[in-house]
Amino acid sequence: MKYIIICLLLITVKVSAQNIIPFSSPRWKIQGKEVVNDTFQGKQCLKITNGNAWLTDANFTNGIIEFDMALVKDRYFPGMSFRAKDANNEEEYYVRPHQSGNPDAMQYCPNYNGGGGWQLYYGDGFGNPHEIPVDRWLHIKLLVKDSMAEVYFDDEKQPALFIRKLYRPIAAGMIALRNDWPAPARFANFTYTETNNITLLSKAQPLQPLSANVFTSWQVSNTFDEKLLAGKSSLSSAHIENLSWQTLSTDDRGIADLARLAPTSEHKNTVLAKVTIHSDKAAVKKFVFGFSDRVRLFCNDKLLYSGDDVYRSRDYRFLGTMGYYDAVYIDLKPGDNEVVLAISEDFGGWGVMGKLEDF
Fold it and tell me: What class does CATH assign to 18-194?
């Protein structure tokens, strides 16, 4: 019996053991324009510009990630990735030193196919106003438990950010320290602990359920060049006959993240997202929608609307975030009506949302 108890204790210790990984360890895969073993304010550290450090064998699902980070006062976005499948599919957290104290001083977002969707994932649960210190060491601790997480700064008792929902599927993956920008970021004292024995201080408040008039499923085409629709006022079968289609469900906020299906490229930056509306009689309805970054809206093959909500298109502080900002009135014929939105993406988030209201 004593032997069994000792073995169980050893197993428990092993499962929740803290992994201290010095940057000299071969476990790290480090690359960048400038990667320097440095000393800053008495700490041995890794200084990175335009690069990252990947712990490819971390196999991290739940637990604690801790490190120190020293920043400069510049416009950049250093931080970390976790539960990463690869460099383009991961959970991501980073800070914005140039937005210190503002609502977007920090950011959580899921990354699908390199989409970097901060324009879709914003507000409560994704960012938080907080001072981001520069020219000193900032201790960051991330607690991850299933579909939620908390971020703590220094020795603060309250989390700097409560991530009420991690939107990617729960799956073990890599960890990375990232700074894909020309301003330097320094990292020191990295550790992680893989354990399910995590208690979060925060409690998630349930979102209001989506109303019945919100579209929660879209038919989405494969990608194509936005230029193919230039100057087109109708959407004929010739434009879509060679397209393939997939069903994409929205998240709990009614947002369909199009990057979940495919990456964008210079000549493949657009998809068609369509819904079918059945009407028993001729009627006029209000179609309220959101998009990122650009849209052309067709109803029954006729162009009704064209819009552009790219970063800073409204004013210098507009992030290009998506919401129910636009609406058109559509004439429904008896039977099935097809509303198609051509959504084009530059950067920052590729998405669509829509709902139907009475006129």
Answer: mainly beta
